[in-house]
Amino acid sequence: MNVKTLPLGPVQANCYIVTKGNHAIVIDPGDLFDLDSILAQGPYTLEAVLLTHAHFDHIKGVDAIVRSHSVPVYIHPQEVAFLKDPSLNASVAFYDRVSIQSPALPLQPGRMNLADFEIDVLFTPGHSCGSTCFIIDNALFSGDTLFQYSIGRTDLPTGSFMEMKESLVRLSSLDDQLIVYPGHGPSTTIGMEKRMNPYLLSL
Ligand SMILES: [Zn+2]
């Protein structure tokens, strides 16, 4: 498995292109980018778009990908409606109005198979009610739940600090060797965060 990180958009949310064999998935396409030239390097067949949550800075590029590749888009069932809604996707508060028209499929917690990818879907509410983490092989895509030495804010609509704490307890029980690819900033590991992240240390 290979992971390519592209910080996109005005708040530089990390978009991840994950490839394995001749297959690719995109996690959190927060703005437009040249996906086709990345896919041509394999060449890789794009299988799906996975969303860690529906905030504007993680979703703005979804429609362009679906238009050109007709792939399914997966998100927590409670955030399907956020994609179209500029208040719930927080774009109205920070940016211009973002409204995604592509249909999205509801994720289920647990194991999900997509082509060569075996994905563990973890619902980790707190930053938003439908925040989700994905474990693929030795990587955890943590969205805005867990950052290097920090965590996502809980003061946006549907955020909850109590739920965030429960989600962090869950993440801190994962394998120390897991590489964490967060929604913003550099990658880290679960073990490093358990030693250095003040929010995990204070659980
Ligand atoms: Zn967010």
UniProtKB/TrEMBL annotation:
One of its GO terms (molecular function) is hydrolase activity. Residues 12-184 form the Metallo-beta-lactamase domain. It holds the Pfam family Lactamase_B. Keywords: Hydrolase, Metal-binding, Zinc. Its cofactor is Zn(2+). CDD domains: metallo-hydrolase-like_MBL-fold (cd06262). Signal peptide: none annotated. SUPFAM superfamilies: Metallo-hydrolase/oxidoreductase. It comes from the Bacteria. This is Glyoxylase-like metal-dependent hydrolase (Beta-lactamase superfamily II). The lineage of its organism: Bacteria, Bacillati, Bacillota, Erysipelotrichia, Erysipelotrichales.
